[in-house]
Inverse folding.
């Protein structure tokens, strides 16, 4: 079997898994309906129960698809950032996306609640999303600019600038929390735990194209990211335009992660865990890694969300708690494993 | 032909490389020798086209470096670095295949496999195809990286003219046997493919065996240039490297053999 068909087969297995996850997630939920009536509702059968149709088409479908988008976006961006920073522990936090998004979300909750006053729930939620996106992209842009020197991006400086800016943003977020009232604090806390509770077709209409565009435009960077594994200098010797690649990868990742955070809050560990899992299963070749991470990330998030809305039904467990609860032990396992097999971390 | 014409590189106000002139012909091994801080690595970086800003002109097979596109340059010359720290585990095969990134269009699987196989065969590492790169010894790593350079230089059939290898201290960190094996292997490759080699080497005796021509560099300037028996003389070695030495003739190879002595 040639290499190409081999990698295609491997990707199809992950694709099939995603499809199965998607279908299962549509049929299972807090509201337990017989499978055939859910099926009828899904195919918009004329005799299907109209409230079930509404539940499936207005709530479940956009929610499951949004979870898939967010999982794919976080995992792909995580893989790309790990490659760019040449560090398996790298994640979006490093370039300040999370902390910036969190600060701006806190500001939004505080000001929209306090000063703008009685705005409707929809606008309140929408403003959090917009602010979080702007905050995430702004801080990562700031960190990126701080690390520029004479037309080059110094990765080490970017890392340190990221830590400093994140700490500063966290301090300001702390200040916001200090002056907020109980309800605002609760809103912010829930937002940071992550949830697909507010999924809608409108959000999906933005998240889906952004994620698809991000993944499609990151894919041509695969070879460059592979060669950067050997070091930036080696990549230059291979004729790779390293500076251009850095700018594109950071921009595309910030955009994808910004949208994810905006619509679902902060969901940790996915961007770290999924690319690692693929590395263990399929190796580090970015030509496969990026697409495989997208597929597995989407499946993982769909399952995490499915669990979060059914495990304590009718209540809901924030999905960020679940991903961290599975992610953290998994991460430790990788650490132990890498020590045994002498993989450099 | 690599032509370096009146190259200067400055870092701030300091002149690191000062009006250097030389040419490297295909089939020739040229070795650059100088003390630490003489500007050797800066010179190598400048001619490699890795982004070092320089004044003067560099021509690769008649084409000015400044107007060469990156991929075309990378098909023309490969650089064997002193050390490569991998960020993630990767197989030998995947590493050698990175040489193909210099092509604008992907190769078909058969030619890929063939070129990788040839390259690994040349460096005697065929059996290591599926091994994890980080599990290899220093000498084995060097040979795999060399195979990557060969794949890089010989995957394009479209580019006419000679190919060149730039080596940054190729023998550093290898044991004596590995050093001599690598030296021999590189000489064979030069003969077989009419490669031009430009190398920075610190070991004088290895340099004497290895080189067709030696360039001595001091304070950014090229001071002496010639074949090893012409320029490896106590007086020159003393002025360039600040060492006293006795120079014999090598009993087997006939090249100079240098014995440094404490002054």
């Amino acid at each position: 079997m040639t290499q190409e068909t081999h990698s295609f087969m491997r990707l199809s297995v992950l694709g099939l898994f995603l499809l199965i996850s998607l279908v299962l997630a549509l049929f299972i939920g807090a509201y337990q309906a017989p499978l055939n009536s859910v099926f009828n509702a899904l195919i918009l059968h004329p005799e299907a129960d109209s409230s079930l149709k509404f539940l499936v088409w207005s709530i479940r479908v956009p929610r499951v698809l949004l979870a898939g988008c967010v999982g794919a976006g976080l995992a792909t961006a995580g893989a790309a950032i790990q490659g760019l920073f040449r560090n398996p522990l790298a994640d979006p936090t490093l370039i300040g996306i999370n902390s910036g998004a969190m600060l701006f979300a806190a500001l939004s909750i505080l000001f929209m609640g306090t000063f703008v006053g009685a705005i409707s729930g929809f606008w309140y939620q929408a403003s959090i999303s917009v602010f979080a996106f702007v905050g995430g992209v702004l801080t990562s842009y700031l960190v990126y600019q701080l690390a520029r020197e004479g037309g080059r991006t110094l990765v080490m400086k970017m890392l340190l600038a990221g830590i400093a800016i994140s700490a500063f943003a966290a301090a300001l977020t702390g200040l916001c929390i200090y002056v907020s009232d109980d309800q605002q604090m609760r809103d912010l806390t829930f937002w940071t735990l992550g949830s697909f509770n507010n999924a809608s077709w409108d959000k999906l209409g933005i998240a889906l194209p952004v994620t698809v565009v991000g993944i499609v435009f990151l894919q041509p960077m695969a070879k460059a990211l592979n060669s950067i594994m050997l070091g930036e200098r080696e990549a230059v010797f291979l004729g790779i335009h390293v500076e251009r690649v850095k700018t594109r990868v950071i921009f595309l990742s910030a955009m994808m992660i910004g949208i994810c955070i905006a619509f679902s809050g902060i969901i940790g560990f996915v961007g770290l865990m999924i690319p690692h899992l693929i590395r263990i299963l399929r190796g580090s070749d970015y030509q496969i890694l990026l697409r495989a991470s997208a597929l597995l990330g989407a499946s993982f998030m769909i399952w995490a969300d499915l669990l979060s809305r059914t495990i304590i039904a009718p209540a809901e467990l924030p999905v960020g708690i679940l991903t961290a609860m599975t992610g953290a032990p998994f991460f430790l396992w990788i650490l132990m494993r890498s020590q045994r097999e002498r993989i450099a971390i | 032909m690599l032509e370096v014409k009146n190259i200067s590189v400055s870092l701030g106000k300091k002149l690191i490389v000062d009006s250097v002139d030389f040419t490297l012909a295909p089939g020739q091994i040229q070795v650059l020798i100088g003390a630490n801080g003489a500007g050797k690595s800066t010179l190598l970086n400048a001619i490699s086209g890795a982004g070092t800003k320089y004044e003067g002109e560099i021509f690769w097979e008649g084409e000015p470096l400044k107007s060469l596109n990156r991929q075309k340059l990378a098909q023309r010359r490969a650089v064997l670095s002193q050390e490569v720290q991998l960020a993630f585990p990767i197989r030998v095969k995947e590493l050698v295949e990175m040489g193909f990134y210099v092509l604008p269009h992907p190769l078909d699987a058969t030619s890929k496999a063939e070129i990788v196989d040839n390259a690994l065969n040349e460096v005697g590492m065929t059996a290591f195809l599926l091994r994890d790169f980080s599990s290899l010894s220093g000498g084995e790593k060097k040979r795999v990286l060399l195979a990557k350079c060969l794949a890089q230089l010989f995957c394009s059939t479209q580019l006419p003219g000679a190919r060149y290898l730039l080596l940054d201290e190729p023998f550093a960190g290898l044991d004596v046997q590995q050093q001599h094996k690598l030296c021999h292997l590189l000489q064979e490759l030069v003969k077989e493919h009419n490669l031009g080699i430009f190398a920075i080497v610190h070991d004088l005796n290895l340099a004497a065996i290895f080189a067709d021509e030696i360039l001595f560099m001091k304070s950014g300037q090229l001071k002496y240039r010639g074949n090893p028996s012409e320029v490896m003389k106590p007086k020159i070695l003393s002025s360039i490297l600040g060492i006293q030495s006795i120079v014999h003739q090598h009993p087997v190879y006939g090249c100079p053999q240098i014995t440094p002595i404490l002054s």
Remarks:
- The radius of gyration of chain A is 21 Å.
- Chain A has a mean pLDDT of 83.
- The beta strands of chain A are 148-149, 152-153.
